[in-house]
Amino acid sequence: MASQRGPAADAVLQNAVFSLVWSPDGRLLASGDFAGTIRLWEMRKTQPATCVQTLEGHTNWVGGLAFAPSGSVLASASWDGTVKLWEVSSGRCLQTLSRHTDKVNCVAWSPDGTRLASGCGSQGQGDSGELFVWDVHSGQRHPAWQPLRGRGNAGNRAFAGHPGVVSAVVWAPSGERLISGDSDGRLRWWEVDSGECMRVQEAHQGTVQALKVNPDGSILASCGDDGAITLWDLERGESLRTLRRDRPYERLDITGIRGLTEAQKATLQALGAVRRRRYP
Q1: Domains and CATH numbers, the chain
Q2: What is the pLDDT of residues 128-149, one digit of tens each?
Q3: How far is CA 228 from CA 189, 206, 212, 224, in A?
Q4: What are the CA-CA distances from residue 148 to residues 39, 103, 152 (Å)?
Q5: Contact of 197 with 161, CB cutoff 8 Å
Q6: Which of 73, 122, 256, 266 fits 68 for a cystine, CB–CB 3.0-4.6 Å?
Q7: Who contacts 273 (Cβ-Cβ below 8 Å, separation ≥6)?
Q8: What 3-state DSSP class applies to 8?
Q9: Rounded to whole angstroms, what are the CA distances from 174 to 7, 156, 230?
Q10: CA distances from 64 to 6, 52, 117, 218, 220 (A)
Q11: pTM for the structure as a whole
Q12: Count of CB atoms situated within 10 Å of the CB of 35
């Protein structure tokens, strides 16, 4: 089917930037765009920023970028289904990790820089995705994150068939846990060495858009399509607080209200109303 956007819209989209990340030392800013091009910008206090490297190799937009803790390698996640590792000093592609079966949305380095987590999936195709952990030196997936032949999703392992498109991923500071967010609005806590899902929490209405751990490693922040930011105890997985601007019907109690359809009640809840569950 021919594109309905038109030449002008296509030209704008070709220039769209979808991902940004700072190098650990703050000297470089990496950007990834719709055309699959990555640029490294050198940030100078007394002079304009300069593009010092242009990295080309992806064939679709770059949805996620992450510098290794050392700052010497940049990982990129693309909708072409691959993750690439780039040598920052030369711009050379060191590895292409290509075992994903769909669009790769996010990528994150382990704290020690030896492992890489990547999440993929595509909405509209059953909303299923994959979460992989890679050994960076070998370019192979961690043994616990391989498909179990003939066993489907046995053991809750995060391989092909991960429920919900994986939209965000972050490491716990210990390197022993991963937290992923998906298109179902849920967060999942994973034990890296076993590949087991330890905890699932309802977090947002709609897709989880980003996950960040605070500097001391005790609190996880998540945000999503519902306009909320939720703070979590990273170790226990318990919700601590939700940050949100007031919506039109914030805290309006519609418990037991009559004359509204379920769809209308759901709309009011999306706009801030609350409906308290009644127990027998």
Answers
A1: 18-245 (2.130.10.10), 246-280 (no CATH)
A2: 788 999 999 999 999 888 764 4
A3: 20, 11, 14, 6
A4: 38, 22, 7
A5: no
A6: 73
A7: 249, 250, 251, 252, 253, 254, 265
A8: helix
A9: 49, 22, 22
A10: 27, 20, 11, 24, 19
A11: 0.79
A12: 15
Give the whole-angstrom CA distance, residue 136 versus residue 150. Answer: 27
Residue 212 identity: K
Higher pLDDT, 72 or 252: 72
80: CB partners within 8 A, 6+ apart: 36, 58, 59, 60, 103
DSSP 221-252: EEEETTS-EEEEETTTTEEEEEE-PPPTTTT-
Amino acid found at 260? L
3-state SS class at 53: strand
Please state the separation of Cα 62 from the chain's center in Å.
12
Structure tokens at 253: 């109690």
What's the rounded Cα separation, in Å, for the pair 18 and 31?
A: 8
Amino acid letter for position 223: C
Q: What is the pLDDT of residues 33-67, one digit of tens each?
A: 999 999 999 988 878 889 999 999 999 999 999 99
Q: Quick check: 162 pLDDT over 80?
A: no
